[in-house]
Inverse folding.
């Protein structure tokens, strides 16, 4: 399983970015899909995670609720994280994450910097 993340960069406070994560196999083969982030000097934390299949449920970290949105394109084997109303506290390396069978896989990380 390979996960290829992209879309990071520099954004101004209040701006938006969309992260993408392309998986090497069908999204339906995963138990969960999601995004984590790690800010400088801090531990990696959950941003959003979603179950797969019928009745999929997405859970967001409290500070991103209403600003970030997780989505997926099954035909492209890609998941997205739309990030709006960015603030400097969102600055971090963002990692996509997937659970396949009993193993957790990570993308390589993409840096998001929010600064004026």
């Amino acid at each position: 399983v390979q996960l290829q993340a992209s879309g990071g960069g520099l954004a101004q406070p209040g701006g938006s970015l969309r992260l993408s994560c392309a998986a090497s196999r069908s999204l339906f083969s995963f138990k969960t899909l999601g995004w984590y982030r790690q800010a400088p000097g801090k531990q990696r934390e959950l941003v959003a995670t979603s179950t797969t299949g019928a009745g999929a449920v997405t859970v967001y970290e409290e500070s991103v609720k209403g600003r970030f949105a997780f989505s997926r394109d099954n035909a492209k084997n890609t998941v997205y994280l739309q990030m709006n109303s960015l603030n400097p506290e969102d600055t971090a390396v963002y990692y996509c994450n997937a659970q396949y069978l009993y193993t957790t896989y990570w993308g390589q990380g993409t840096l998001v910097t929010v600064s004026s």
The mean pLDDT is 95. The first strand starts at residue 3 and ends at 6. DSSP finds no helices and eleven strands in the chain. Residues 86 and 94 are 14 Å apart (CA to CA).
